[in-house]
Amino acid sequence: MNAQRITLSAFLADASQGLPKDSQLADLLLNIADTAKAIAKLTEKGALIDMVGKLESQNIQGETQMKLDVESNQIFIDNLTRSGLVAGLASEEMEAPVLIADDQHQGAYLAIFDPLDGSSNVAVNVSVGSIFSVLHAPTDALPVEQDYLQAGRKQVAAGYAIYGPCTMLVITVGKGTHGFTLDRDTGEFSLTHANIQIPEDTAEFAINASNERYWEPPIKRYISECRAGVSDNSREKNFNMRWIASMVADIHRILMRGGIYMYPKDNKDVAMPGRLRLMYEANPMSMIVEQAGGLSSTGRVRIQDIQPEKVHQRVPVIMGSKNEVLRVESYHKT
Ligand code: MN
Ligand code: MN
Questions:
Q1: Three-state secondary structure call for residue 131
Q2: 161 in a domain, yes or no?
Q3: Judgement on whether residues 82 and 215 belong to the same structural domain of the protein
């Protein structure tokens, strides 16, 4: 045991982390950490509890919901509602943002979350996670959907929990990206990864290559060059491919050792400009990645500059090691 470990609450109380003294943001992040602990407890039970089954229902995204999706969503809602710290909340799993009852409507923040990302991986015991984003509520009035439609650069905090061999919470309040590991014996999150830095260069890419025939020319070019590597002087090095198909797990790997993650625009379903959700997935992960020295783009624009038009909007996502993201962006310009 390392007695020097800084707990999440001590870290958030440390003035040098830039949270104003009277800010309720620290309390909100601790509330989300408690939610992550509760969801981790459920995922750990696996098939011992009937949580991995699929429901008849579909969520607003037209995806089959698992019991664990619904349960995780409810834990987020219950904890945030009770906290008195949020004016409203929006979830990937729900059609409309939840209004907080007037007597609990004390908070200055809007919380946005994907309660269980990659939930189909639960059935095969592969890492899943929760992703969250925090915005200022723009007015004191009960929030309306328009209030949530803020560009990613306006996020006041963002992060994710990953439920893997260990449970970790990775957060940013705009002063770097920091990782905390849950000690299952004490129930405490402690700082284990201060100031995470994504290497600027990488030799790993992550993409669902089965979609290749639907990609646009810049992505086809980029991936074919990575695959050719030094063989025909396409690149100065050879590349490896990784694809967990759980965004949290793929992005976590990139934070730990670099890489580029892509869910690009494709023509598989022309009604869908991208696969991932801007507000629940792309924006919070963009803030996390960019606070760790990486970049995040659709290929054409920086994700955090996009003015959202609806809460469930989808966007292409290309993020990770800086020099590779810049290269993919440059291929979109030619
Ligand atoms: Mn998701
Ligand atoms: Mn989800």
A1: strand
A2: yes
A3: no
Distance 308 CA to ligand 2 centre (A): 19
Q: Quote the ligand 2 centre to 236 CA distance (angstroms).
A: 38
Kindly give the distance from the C-alpha atom of residue 217 to the centroid of ligand 1, in angstroms, as a whole number. Answer: 26
**Per 3-state DSSP, what percentage of the chain is helix, strand, and coil (rounded to 5)?**
40, 25, 35
Ligand 2 centre and the CA of 117: distance in Å?
4
Residues 6-52 have pLDDT tens digits of 999 999 998 787 777 767 999 999 999 999 999 999 999 888 887 76
Which H or E run contains 234? none
Residues 126 and 39 in one domain: yes
134, 110 contact by CB (below 8 A): yes
Distance from the alpha carbon of residue 281 to the mean position of ligand 1, in angstroms = 6
Nearest listed ligand to the Cα of residue 73:
2
Kindly list the distances between the CA atom of residue 38 and the CA atoms of 42, 115, 117, 320, in Å, as whole numbers in the listed order: 7, 12, 15, 29
Q: Count of domains in the chain?
A: 2
Output the six-digit token pair for 39.
Answer: 């969801």
- Global pTM reads 0.95
